[in-house]
Design brief:
Helices cover 26% and strands 33% of the residues. The chain is an alpha+beta fold and 150 residues long. This is Secreted protein.
Length: 150
């Protein structure tokens, strides 16, 4: 199910309907979140892909990579395999997989790792930050924004 609406970064969001606690109207659980990479993935033809979407991870997504030989040999590879499973689209690429993630710039990989943590562990895409100059605290929306923008 895809829907568009205000407050939804980039417009489109996938979701699943769940009964509300009161038993009345159904509420929608967001299962897919849009993002924009700070630099962008450059494919074989030189096209830069920045906008994409990531879905919520399942237990299976987190367990299956642990069987991967590459992860057993190098535990740092876990995030590459995991991100390859949960990124649902990136620009106009037909398929996103761990090989795609392997060839991303380090800043984009770091962005995606943080984005994954935000939507899966914390349940939202906002982060609390403080201005380095005035030390004022505020929140920034990570979904659909580029690094350095608020």
């Amino acid at each position: 199910m895809r829907r568009e609406g205000p407050g939804v970064p980039g417009g489109a969001v996938a979701g699943a309907e769940t009964p509300s606690a009161s038993g009345g109207a159904r509420e929608t659980l967001r299962t897919e979140f849009e993002f924009e990479l700070p630099r962008g993935y450059v494919d074989e033809s030189g096209t830069v892909h920045r906008r994409g979407a990531m879905r919520l991870a399942t237990a299976r997504d987190e367990l299956l990579p642990l069987r991967d030989v590459r992860v057993r040999e190098n535990p740092a590879y876990l995030s590459v395999v995991l991100l390859g499973r949960v990124i649902t689209r990136l620009g106009t690429l037909g398929d996103v997989h761990d090989g795609t993630v392997e060839n991303m710039f380090a800043s984009d990989l770091a962005f995606l790792q943080d984005f994954y943590r935000q939507i899966n562990a914390e349940g939202h895409t906002r982060a609390a930050v403080a201005c380095p100059h005035c030390e004022q605290s505020f929140e920034v929306e990570l979904a659909g924004s580029r690094l350095g923008e608020s």
